[in-house]
Structures
1.
Amino acid sequence: MRTFRLISLLLLLAFSAQSQVANIIPAPVSYQAKSGFYLLSDKMAGPVVASSPAERVAASHLVKSLGLKGKNWDTKSAAKAGQKPITLSLNSQPAANLGKEGYTLEVTSKGITLRANEPAGLFYGVQSLAQLMEGNQIAACSIVDYPRFGWRGLMLDVSRHFFTKDEVKAFIDQMARYKLNTFHWHLTDDNGWRV
């Protein structure tokens, strides 16, 4: 467990050295702060709007990431009148600059819109949205983000150090939070072989 904490701390330090833009790690390609905030409460927040199955998967990650389980949120294709929706959508015409893992995120006091070309982009946008949350609010902003490198990986060496199943899962969850897309699982070496 100490090794996991050390790796998490090193990742945090490495990525935060890049930039301190809105506490998003790694820093987005473009970030513009705006006035106001989106309030997450039963009275102010609206449904999570997601039409396709891929959008609904991202919506379920969003609800889980923001700790919204048990609240009256849905993933129907239309927002209810008077509510302030969080909309997740895949672009019908792919934006060339976003690629497969990029996204755009607009946060205003009237709602949140997350768009991407592919489901991976929605997933990474959800990670950024979770990092932006402070208490029960998200500061208004406009973000365009896509990875600078296609291969963003981290290795876990279990041939020399034993990790439980839950520790490995937590390691992968932390990788996803920081938008690392390749898990190298070092299972075997001359010192041992673990499954």
2.
Amino acid sequence: MDLTESPAEQAFREELRSWMAANAPAPFDGDTHSLEYVDYLRTWQRTLAEGGWLGITWPKEYGGRGLSPVEQTIFLEEMAKAKAPPIIGGVGIGLIGPTIAMIGTEKQQERFLAKMLLGEEIWAQGFSEPNAGSDLGSLSTRAVRDGDDFIVNGQKTWTSYAHVSDWIFLLVRTDPEVHKYKGITCLLVDMKSEGVSVRPLRMMSGDAAFNEVFFLDVRVPVSNVLGEINGGWNVAITALMHERANLGGAAHVLLSQFLAGIVRAARELGVADDPLVRQKIAHAHLGLEVFHMTSSRALSKVGKGEMPGPEGSILKLFWSDLNQRMVQWAEEILGPYGQLSEGVFEPFSYNYLRSRGNSIEAGTDEVLKNTIAYRVLGLPKSY
């Protein structure tokens, strides 16, 4: 594993830092659940895209830079360090765009990729269903061929940003007679189509970024099939590979910032010298170092041109466990102050409530453990 940045990578980091210092917007002062905030994020995404900082690993002919995942990780790290606004089209840029660039037709690439980068069209990922979350192959949303269209009926859930999305990357069942993984197709669906409706899911943290999406006799042109009809499972695997490709960089920075906040709060409350408090902080620090080394090992492998290994699943599993433990330790250290939802202690209360979803989103812990046991360790299946 090589942790030394090349001169070109160092220059990339310095160029990005200088650009961020000159172009990062002022923090949004308002309701982050409002349409004004959505417009603020769209504007920020367009600024990034026009500056050449989005689609870093995308081919140049699609508006990207054609660089490696190393530069993409540097970008995510510096965004986190600068506490820059999030990228509202992150699902499209990090997951759907690269998949369309690899699998899509030339017409699809010309139609969607440029608008995706500029934030003119926001994308959602329509995978999970009420009865097909961890077992995605059991999805039941149906698409029936009718001439030059498919007619779609069904429901998706836990769909991030569907309430502000223009398009959805949708997995549907097109052949119920074959094995469940062989009868799935991926459709690119306009969210403004007649028959599409969205219902937000408000969580206990107050967020409503997740949604239920309903499809009632929605017509989708056959030309909007991504890949092959009944070949959607391979499309999904390609997309998921991109989803976890850059988990480590930004996550490590954000967790480190959170730990620094715990230390500041412990000092302010006068409990920083308590042996139990110091033990919790030490455990968190060690966990962060393990996470960082595992992330760096995965990045080093990709940087050498090797295929990604099991590190993506391992990183996601480790991150969800570490983050949940860290927010629990923060609440124990802060005591009653950890319940405050305003002022200096506000992030701790929010992060504790939000962290409950970590072991479910992007692959449940139980499923990831089985995957690692079976495919990495070679253990027998449990059924």
3.
Amino acid sequence: MNINDIAKLAGVSPSTVSKVMNGRDSSISSETRSRVLEVARKYHYQPYSSVAPQASGRTFMLGALIQDMASDGKVVAGMLEASSPIGYSLLLEESCGTADGELRAMTALLSRRVDGIVWNPLPNGGPLARGELERSGVPALLLGNGPGGEFGIDFERIGYVATEALVEAGHTEVACIAGDGSSDALFVSGYRRCLFDHAIPQREDLVMMDAGDDLPSAMASRRFTAAVTSRYSFALRLCDLAKSLRYVLPQDLSLVSFFPGAPGEESLLACSVVTPPQRELGRAAAQRIIGMVEGNDSAGFPDLPYEVVSAETIAEPPSQARPRVISVGSINIDNYLSFDSLPRAGTSTSTSRSSVFPGGKCANEAVGISKLGLAAAAIGMVGDDADADVVFGALAEHGVD
């Protein structure tokens, strides 16, 4: 930040900033003085006269300007793993989701004379932070959705890997549900490239944007046997639709989604996912920025590992799946009372021990069929009370449609 930038932000003239910063401000009001000093502190401004000539050597410090630790924490961990063993320290700043915070973070890193910066810029970030970086001449690596010149997560590769997992399971009718963002477009591109590589005809009716109005009818008519989604929220909607249609995943529908979290959280997820290898990205970013600093940079998009986390919602297409057996008949609730002794004539017996179990010939057969490894479907009548919820829950637990 130069004196003109500080003056503009404080709403005063450059000469006023100079007077305040050099202690010649007796003619300036306390309110103006406080405002100038606040802006100067906020953006780490130092007057030219107080800055010592910068040494020509390196500081062996790298800067990481991230959006927040919640989303970029594993990237930072990967950077530390790659930089610390070879003698580089890492200074961390967060933009906290605002252009002003991004500018303050950038000036803080530059004031510490870092050798290079790895920066995850905000989509709506202002030009001031970028201007400060360009004026400094400090090498920087911008994280992004690549591979168009930026360094980051390869969403095209994610779309390809998600689709290929379904193709390898035997699916040829795979839907792609995506949004309208740049990362979504790359995801769709990977989906299309996978189908092309496996000689599967591409159908435009199976590419649906934003999980729109066409999705329920496409599912109800079984237009596709599997789906990939570029956003986890779309996968959750697909799961809700499947539940409303009494579809069971993955017997009736296989599903793989992109998920921005990290491996280890799969037990909480509704479907199989491809997660970004954030720690590996951090290591690659640190290695790349150190190469830029030391003059041996090897440009190129990082070759990171992408794989499907768990295969719980990936199965063969229904037409190739295990035989299906349908059981038709009674479905009911059995109520059991436990007594120490049976009542005798003329007496009564009481108990506080009771049990409730779903039963009926149809339900019992369907659960038994499922336990034998076949696909089971039950046709029967239940009510709309709490007992019905018990029945549906028990049948779903055993994979009965």
4.
Amino acid sequence: DISFSINRTKAASYGVPLHEIDRTIRAAFAGVDVSRYRDEEGKEYDIVIRMPFKIRPSLSDFDKVFVKSMSGRFIPLKQVTDIRFSAAPTEISHFKAERTASVTCDVAKGYTVDEIQKQMQQQMSQLDMPDGYSYIFGGELESREETFGGMAEAAIIAIIAIFAVLVLQFRSFGQPLIIFVSIPLAIIGSIWALYITGWTFSFTALIGMTSLIGIVINDSIILVDYSNVLMRDEKKNTVEAVIEAGQTRFMPILLTSLTTIGGLLPLTLRGGALWAPMGWTIIGGLLFSTVLTLIVVPVLYSIFTTKNQNSALKQDPIEI
């Protein structure tokens, strides 16, 4: 764009009002309606006055523009203004009622969005931003945060609902907590699997972790429920019940995990960047949690199952 910077000191010394400069420039190049012409047939036409140029004005045309002062003298436009070129956007974009400028880019092959965003964040934090200016990261990062926010709320609601059902089933708050110990074990395994394979925690990985939580909770329920059955029906003590439950349910739990891992391997190895994170999330979580669940859950069960709970287990279970 061509911009005009008015020299207020000179304009005041020549007696030229600021609005007169603006009106003169507009009239010279954009034109201004001064009257209307009516022909013999009654048709009316606007009479527009402007500088005489055929196609478009040139920089030399500014030398022909004079501004009228309050004393009636005509002052050259260049005497009271500085004319220069300035960059301007083709359109004005807004985000949350504020003017914005967007810079877009694609991540090169061999890099991830998280790596690039982290480096950009470090460099942008070193900039001395003027007052009124700020920056945000959008694109895939923004979409991921919005998606993860909704999924996190859904996951919390699901966990609360599962916990409520387990409390009704076992008539205890302690045993559902023991069952829920398998969740952080699975999460640790998923994080390690993604770290070793080099994949980032994407939206599909979050879906895989949600599915993983249901699988590992089911394994813990099998151990705890069978231990309760042995203590209630066969009158075994806590240690004997835990040992027999672990021996009896070891192969079903192990085979369930192995068949799930085997079914996910083709999708994980050939699914590319979309499905590989989900597959490795489930596989890593299952491998880690299956081994530790068979150890941690029985140990916690034998420690925190009190005599009062033992007597309660001798009662008939609640049917849901």
